[in-house]
Amino acid sequence: MSVLELAGVHTYYGDSHILEGVDLDVSEGEVVALAGRNGVGKTTTLRTILQLTPPREGEITFRGESLVGLETHDVAARGLGWIPEDRRIFGQLTVEENLRAAIPEPGDVAAGLDLAFESFPILEERRGQDAGTLSGGQQQMLAIARGLVGDNDLLLVDEPSEGLAPQIVADVAEALSRASEDVTMLLVEQNLPLALDLADRFYILDKGRVVDEGETAAVSADDERFRRYLSA
Amino acid sequence: MYDVLLNSPVSAEAQTLLPTVETMVGVLYFGLFAISFDFVSGYTGYLSFGHAVFYGTGAYTVILVANGKVPLLGPGTPFMLSLLVGGLLAVVLAILVGLVSFRLSGVYFAMITLGFAQVLYVFVRGWDYVANNPRDGPAVGPSHVEGFQIGVPGVDQLSLAIGVLTGDEVSLLGSTLSSTAVSYYMVGLVVLGCYFAMQRIIHSPFGRVLLAIRENEERAVAVGYNTYLYKLGAFAISGFFAAVAGGLFAGFRRSASPENSFYFLVTGDALLASIIGGFGTLAGPLYGRLFDETVREFLSPAGQGGGLLPYLRALLGQETLDAAVVGNETVGGLIDLLLNGHASLYVGIVFVLFVLYVPDGLLGTLRSRVGGTFAEAVPARIWGDDR
To answer: What was the ipTM of the complex prediction?
Structure first.
């Protein structure tokens, strides 16, 4: 059963036509990767789903309910979590305050903190530290942990491995893999091996449209289909 | 302490450097206004350029209530109740202004709040219900000769009147506290209470969301917070305390004018205090105002109490002052040229220097030096982090 469906979605930034009729769906319990070169509209797709950049045309439904026209906080309240690129943490709040802020009332704060600290033990050691003073890798862990603790049904994950050291990428991948047992994910990731490793299905986006899709089990990162659309 | 210094061998220097008690009362009530400005602007990142309208609302409410010009509230209404009424009126006003203004952000928000405030400023300047000459503003009328009492309404033993001429004097341990000194302590009590209330709000989950909005509003929205309502709530709370500050100002001065309450430059002074004291520090704007007033008084024109100008005149003596420096220009003339009436110029220079070299302000810089707020950092240094 589809949790999320996009049908003929067109999104613009001013006069720039970014998404030119995107169609995709994500089923319950799946991890779906969204691949493509820089600038083809992957992040815009996530922003459009969240209504941060609302579409001008098309339909977006979550569990059968249209999201188009809703306020972003109402979208989030329906169980959509966002792990944005560039680690948009709240730098002047402590690690713990960041996590608490990600659990709106009447969420179970203690359970959320346990989940975050279990996934990333370093965050427990730094729980009282201002998040802005964490290393880049730790900030990414915190950004992911915030997505995990929000009791979300669907996580929109944007470039989780961007700019991280290989060891940190492995930790992040492991945390996302564990999280995927409980939550459905739509994953935007440039690191194709990582994306294919985590995802069940993939979509390739090019010039604002879905140009290919399939099961990840049937492909490898050096597949012709990826080389055609992802190589520079 | 102040009296001790003024009666010591360094009395001349103390008088030159220290602001008067009357100035300090002004630092307190205006400091509260600047704190309320910082509450919304420093903690959400939305610059409320029309904040003076709430200060003016509080000030005018107190005077109009005292003059029996507010329906259902007679001249005998306790001052504390007038402060509350002024605060609640400001809350209503803030919600009305905020409902429109928070649809915008950045410079547009600043401009629309300024626009609303200017509309009200022009309105009160022409509203002859408030005073015979509304351009000069209202003053407390003869029907209310006694000072405004701060304390527990209806209990005289737990209340003291404020005001330079109308305030109570208090005999304590063989010495007498002047009415101005009593005003200082009583106004200070209200300011302290308001500060702690705002501090509690900032450290509550509500305050954490405000910080999240300042840091990254888009992210806060995506977490599920209706940031519009949070900002509106912060604006209303801030408006309430701004009105209390305005009420204290009117209670102490017993008059107000559109220029010293509703005008946009009043907000400018709060912005100045916030930048000098430290934006987003809450207490910082109070220190910023103290710094601002101290510099202004230190450089105050001749004949306005202490300050550098009369100090130099007394120190140098008439003979030196009359001595020629260049052409017909005397030492006294040169000092006058540089110092007399130029306080605003020097404050402006200080402001520029703060923006350039102390961007975190006085308190913000001190906090970053000690590694947190004093309440956290000082005990941690004394007892260690493992208390």
So the answer is: 0.82
